[in-house]
Amino acid sequence: MTIPHPGSNRSCRAGRALLRNRPAGLLLATALAAVGLTGCGNGVAPTAGGATASASTAAPATTSPTPSPTPPVDRDGDGIPDSSDTYPDDPKNIPQQAPVSLQCKTDDEWGGALFTVYGGKDGRPDFAEVWAAKPSSCELVGSLNIVTAVEKQAYKISKYDDEDITTLYEMCAEVDPDDVYAEAGFTASSEQIPEMNAALTLCPSHPYAKKWRQAVQRGQADADLEAQGRLFGSGTYRVGKEIKPGTYVTHDVDGCYWERQDRSGNTIDNYFTNGARRVQVTIRSSDYAFHSENCGEWRPAR
Asked: Predicted confidence band at 93 (pLDDT cuts at 50, 70, 90)?
């Protein structure tokens, strides 16, 4: 006898035929057993409540949330990504000079040493490493563009006209023991004052800064006297127009000659010396002109 497959229609029909041929007493047990039989026709087993399970009742798949993009790195918090920020560590984005190379002559290095000067926090170049070596002379390597606000200010003060501040960088780097600007009693000329003030703008902490400032102050005082007509050298000057009347002195002269003149060019008074430590003259308001030769610089007597 061949046993049909449990899931086939043939099995289902055979079961119903068996129920018809069994005695009535066995119907209940057979009916209960029929509950466990597989469904007929479509091969789907009935559920306990008589309902058929549906694939459409399966739970929907869970979707993972899309991760937020990683924000770009911005170290200084200025809103500009470091990849596009020219000054990634400065929230104010103040223009900075590129590192400047200087070849300097020092006592420790035969043939000189190469130093690199970087921008400082205050916008000024940091010469500390160079100053520690005390170079007597320095020469800038390569070219230099005026970039920072301090450099622009120094250039303006210098009264240069070539858009070049190489000389200022070299002045700032050098710590020459024979620096004439640092000599005791040195007085800066009217041409030297702008350059020295420009250097002090670029490197106000230079080892000779105090001496430079004193030289500038003396020079500025002389420039003021010159503008007033109370400081002058050799030549002929109109009294009251080019120079002021008063008592003037000069020092350490050789072959000095002076004369006071009237309107006709005649000599009112004169003086000559082959050499003297000090020469003095009083120019009167009634004098028309004053003339001197080889007498150096006349300044008001103290």
From this structure: low
